[in-house]
Amino acid sequence: MAIHQKNTATGSFTATGRWSFKSNVDCFFDCIDTNSDNDEVVALSKEIFDEAFEIKFDFIDSESGSNFVHSGLASATYNAGDKEIAYDICNSGDYTVENLIDYGVYEFGEIF
Questions:
Q1: ∠33-39-45 over CA atoms, to 5°?
Q2: Helix, strand or coil, per DSSP, at residue 98
Q3: Helix, strand, or coil here: 40?
C-alpha cells in the first residue's frame, strides 16, 4: 500500500520590478538540475528528483509598461522529473487607477 502525505503551506508575497508572474511560474522548476555545476544544487535536486508535489498560486499581476492588471490561478506540478505548468488568467483589465484598486493592488487613497 502506498502512503501519500499531503503538506499544505500558505504564504503571500509582494514583488516589484520588471517581471511578470507568468515568467516566474514558467521557470519555477529550473532550480531542479542534477547536471548543475553547483554541488549543492545537484545534491538537493537528487534528493527531491523522485518526489511528487504541486504548488498552487492565486495571483494578481500588474505591469504599467504592458498596460495590464490580471488576476488568475497557476499551478506547478512535479512528478519524478515530469513537470507541468498551468497558468490561467481569470480576469484582466487595463492598468488604470480604478482597476488597480478593484484588483486589490492598491487601497483607495494609496494611488491617484
A1: 35
A2: helix
A3: helix
- Beta partners for 59? 72
Asked whether 38 and 84 are in contact (CB, 8 A), the reply is no
Contact of 92 with 69, CB cutoff 8 Å: yes
**Cα-to-chain-centroid distance, residue 89:** 13
Identity of the residue numbered 109: G
Q: Strand, coil or helix: what is 63?
A: strand
C-alpha cell at 30: 529550473
Model's pTM, two decimal places?
Answer: 0.74
Q: Which residue has the cell 532550480?
A: 31
Handedness of CA 8, 70, 74, 27 (dihedral sign): negative
CA angle 49, 53, 54 (to 5 degrees): 135
pLDDT digits (tens, 9 = 90+) for 10-60: 777 777 766 788 888 888 888 899 999 999 999 999 998 898 888 899 999
Across the beta sheet with 82-93, the strand order is 52-63, 68-79, 82-93
Q: Count CB-CB contacts under 10 A for residue 40.
A: 8
